[in-house]
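Interim report, section 4.2 (structural modelling).
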Amino acid sequence: MGTSYTPPTNPDWWREPVERTEIWWIVLAFAWCLFMFGWMVGWHFIGPQNMSNEAYKTTPEAFSKKLADQQAKYTIRKDQATGEDVVSPPPGSDVYLAGMQWQWRPILELKKGQKYRFHMSSLDVGHGFSLQPENINFQVYPGYEQVTNITPNKTGTFAIACGEYCGGVDAMGHHTMLGRIYVKE
Amino acid sequence: MATTTMSDFRVDPVSGLKIHKTANTLVKWNAFAAVVFLLVGGLFGVGVALTRMPSVQLLSPEWFYMALTAHGLVNLAVWIIFFEMAVLYFLGAHVLGNRLATPRWAWAQFWLMLVGAAMVAVAVLAPLWGGAPSSVMMTSYPPLEAQPHFYLGLILFAVGALIGCFVFLGTLVVAKREKTYSGSLPLVVFGGVTATVIAIFTIVSGALILIPTFVWSLHVIPGFTIDPMMYRVVWWAFGHSSQQINVVTHISIWYLIASLVFGAKPMSEKVSRFAFLLYILFLQLGSVHHLLSDPGLTSAWKIFNTSYMLYLAVLASMIHGLTVPGAIEVAQRRKGLDTGLFTWLRKAPWGNPIFSGMFLSLVGFGFIGGVTGVVMSVEQVNMIIHNTMYLPGHFHGTLVVGTTMAFMAVTYWLIPVVFQRKIALAGVAKLQPYVFSLGAWVFSIALMGAGTLGVQRRHADITFAGQPLAYEYPEIAKGLMDLGEIFGIIMAVGAIMFILVVLASIFTGERIPEGSAPWPKVEDADVVAERTGKHHVGMWGMEAPGTFILAMILFVTIVLYYFINFKYLSTIWGLS
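Predicted structure of the assembly:
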């Protein structure tokens, strides 16, 4: 007698010795668990890719104001594809990007190897910042402004797709939402 | 006080269990509702799959987002929670030879869940008859707004499930008082208690966020809004934890099937129960997996929670992953298959869908759902995975490959016991776990591949057609989406095979009359060992060396996959 659907045959099962297969596995598995925990903490000290802990409360109005100021100050040219302003704040400075139904704006131009204070927020519903083809993904909300220090390490034209479902009607919608970042030498 | 007489019970010839007829009726209705919803949700899933196949793109965005909302809710919540109610009542009443406490409340559970599910369905499917849509996805993040009855339906459904949890706990109290068992609860019932504790936490969290969201959607209190981040923090305590209930339930089912098919005994009651206890203590912390790329939450908080405090819940899963096949190996060896490393596995009944389904669920859950789940929930690795197709790939690897396959496997045993019918279309049943698992495994892996290449989840179209700021995913990503969704259709075929077998069996299967001769029962392995004097089994001083080797393969896989992801992470833009 002894199954998983009948009460334990030994009423004092808590004192039964544990067999070797299980003990070795538990020791090994727990060691790996501790390693993974340590590595995740350690990457904050040794790794160049980490989540930022800097964020502020904001409003769509306040964030729109920052976008407008940035556009007035740092527009360098018109984009060939859309005719919109391309904004290029100087290295080391603050860069603002907003998600809205259904685009990421402004179109940005950054310099490779330079660090920027990158501010993200949403002007309406929740969006997901998804930089392609790097595949860097962040959650973006209305009312919250996340600040991440970014350092582009490649040149090229990068797309920003939307990773968080943000509504959709026939022609437009979540799946059409795009933005663009040019990275130059 | 309700009193029960012997005529309220029957002795089941198939399992030998003493079955309370009222409890049995409730198990039947909940299980039947579950299977019907599996079919409904699955059909929406087919619509989703055929749209996400770049070369087909069946549905327009409007219908796609509606179908995806319906598929997520029905298959993630309704099918699974109805089935879990059936499992809980079965564990509390059938397994313990006990009566069900408060059958009227149990009926309230059933009807509330049904009415709730219907209300959500009416809200979500409204565009079909020209109504206002509630295509807000299963997650329904504000400020996206659904119709009020969408939230109300979810609340009723959850309240129904909560009632079911308390009926189960009450049933355990009855069993204890009426001494229908002696000593400690059987391991599988202990697993059921674990699932219930997590379920209560889950449902209370759901109430905490869905009730205010419902009030918000009515627009009766001026200026009342839901903070989008607070919503996500609390909602995921509900959304993620509800998936932990599934894990605990399907692990209990693995243990049950190991005993039913092999007469296996848990390798160590202490170890298995301790692992369940770790789930109660730490599993819910995992809801932060969904919040790792969110603003306003600190890394310290994220790391503590995403690791389930030193990965103690991962440890628990790794333990169950060894002890379930280990128990099977020990049982097989005690019954004479004590040669070589894998004779016990080779000579297992692979043509029995109860076993094959369970074992495919175990292996698939470990290697596909488990390995990827541990890696993607690393705070930093999450940045290159969050909200891509990797996510649907992963959670089909847990929910479909693991939970749904295990539920299907146990259904093949439950039909004769609960519905008193023999399995019809036995040939179809025999193949079903293989077809379903083949589809689900390749589907999950292909989608994760596409997600690694950047394809986003919940997109009606991945070509960004007509957009001036064009972007094109790599060709291989599109190929992976096509491949994955083709296997998604194979998975759907497997699901339809299952539903056919269930419906054919319960409506046309050969009846098993009450009082018929008991079915031959698998002998308990330790009884056989007692008789043959086979007390020492295994090799290298281990009772389950073959299982240890299998576990080591899992271990090496997870270590390699962990570092491959960090290698990829180290090549992207600097972020701090």
